[in-house]
Amino acid sequence: MAVVVERNGKISKGAELLSPAGGRDQLEAAVRFGADAVYLAHEKFNMRAGAQNFDDKGLCLAVEYAHNSGVKVYITLNTVPHNDEIKEIPQVIETAADAGVDAFIVSDAGVFALCRKYAEDIDIHISVQAGIVNSESAKMWHSLGATRAVLSRELTLDEITAIRSEIPDDMELEAFVHGAMCISRSGRCLLSDYMTGRDANRGDCAQSCRWRYALCEEKRPGVYYPIEEDESGSYILNANDLNMAAYIDKMSQAGIYSFKIEGRAKSAYYTAVTTYAYRAAIDEYLNSAGEYRPQPWVLDELHKISHRTYSTGFYFGRPAGEQTYDNGGYVRTHQVVGIAGEYSGELLKVSQRNRFYRGDVLDCLEPGKEPYNVTVEKIINLSGEEIECANKAAEDVFIKCGGDVGCGAYMRKRLD
Q1: What's the predicted TM-score (pTM) here?
Q2: Distance from chain centroid for Cα 182
Q3: How far is Cα 4 from Cα 117, in angstroms, rounded to an integer?
């Protein structure tokens, strides 16, 4: 939902919710749960080599599907290609242009020039990898033909406000609103390449910053000292996750147009939950006449997905605790146990994902509704036998649950 509203004395286009689509399942989740636009990648030259991504045919089908739902598609070409690879990029650009993508996301000046040469009518967005932290950088890219700057994660809202006031009105600003934060400035990191030979700047990050580390003194080999006194070890490089759902108003008032969710390597469930929560948050802000306050369920939803400790990143100043020292893993409150299918009489077909029992209360998420609960009154397997527990992942069962659960709804169980 994008509306024309008055912001700080200027007319704003409203807000765009930009969701990750690492593969077809994630794309469909983003579209179903309310994204205005998605960012995805061809199988070559993108920053998430571990994601499913799209081949030539898959890209065409993805753009067609998104456009049929009124959703824009931005394609990432934001790796740093070496000289022997640059000759392959024009073909990818032309393939994407023929598919009908709405914009390229690039960080390398050479790739930018090739996009202008081989697809001159398609918008170009400057990736966060370019590290835009000042208005002069943004204006330089705009002068070359860029239509949007994806701002560095290391900026405060005050700095973004200043940049917005100093750049052309027709240059859009995009910023991350949710997801994993990189310990290295704007993701330009050498750690993974140094330790594993997997280059983070070419889409193959091993996330070495998430590993557990200890200190070893040169003359005492094999003797390891914890850097923090904790029985679990130390995670000195492990950044918290970003969560700005409570501050959509402040981001918009700073001049941010596109609200970007990180996570092209994440699951379709992650895409669905984050997209739905931020769709509701953004709509609440755009439609609010007074003080913005997201509904409680919006904030609660973001804890139902796997995440590290949440923070507001750099938006309110250099954080004193942007690293998490006590936990190297994920936390979450819920687990997906099934995906709803069609009804057969009073019985709902469910495709299992994790174990659940008769009597369990399941939390359901589907488009167009606030999350709601149903109780499993009966479970029947495909042989027609009534069972107490559904415990075979990816198999189908039928349940009686006394509710109207829509096809495709995620059904979740609270973790004890």
Answers
A1: 0.87
A2: 13
A3: 33
User: What does the alpha-carbon distance between residue 152 and residue 175 come to, in Å, rounded to a whole number?
Assistant: 8
Q: Is 300 exposed, middle or buried (0-12, 13-18, 19+ CB in 10 A)?
A: middle
Could you tell me the pLDDT band of residue 327, with boundaries at 50, 70 and 90? Answer: low
Query: From residue 324, how far is each of 212, 270, 321 by CA, in Å?
Result: 12, 22, 7
Tell me the pLDDT tens digit for each residue of 199-226. 656 566 666 666 666 677 777 777 776 5
What's the rounded Cα separation, in Å, for the pair 265 and 62?
17
Secondary structure E strands in 139-261: 148-150, 172-179, 215-216, 224-225, 241-243, 258-261
User: Is residue 39 within 8 Å of residue 271, measured between CB atoms?
Assistant: no
Kind of pairing between the strands at 361-365 and 123-126: unpaired
Phi, psi of 70 (to 5 degrees): 75, 25
> What's CA 271's distance to the chain center, in Å?
6
The packing angle between helices 268-287 and 24-32, to 10°, is 20
- 241-298, pLDDT tens digit by residue? 999 999 999 999 999 999 999 999 899 999 999 999 999 999 999 998 889 999 999 9
Residues 284-322 pLDDT 10s:
999 988 899 999 999 999 999 999 889 998 999 877 655
Q: How far apart are CA 280 and CA 377, in angstroms?
A: 31
Q: How far apart are CA 323 and CA 320, in angstroms?
A: 8
C-alpha dist (Å) from residue 256 to 10, 105, 144? 13, 17, 21
pLDDT at 236: 60
CA 353 to chain centre: 22
Q: What is the pLDDT of residue 44?
A: 78
Determine the pLDDT at residue 81.
Answer: 87
The two structure tokens encoding residue 15: 């807000």
SS3 of 356, please?
A: strand
Alpha helices in 150-263 (DSSP H): 157-166, 191-196, 248-253
Rounded Cα–Cα distance for residues 137 and 134 (Å): 6
Q: What share of the chain is helix, strand, coil (3-state, %, to 5)?
A: 30, 25, 45
pLDDT of res. 393: 84
Q: Which amino acid type is present at position 182? A: C
User: Helices 135-144 & 157-166, crossing angle to 10 degrees?
Assistant: 40
Of 117, 247, 140, the residue nearest 126 (C-alpha) = 140
Tell me which amino acid residue 89 is. I
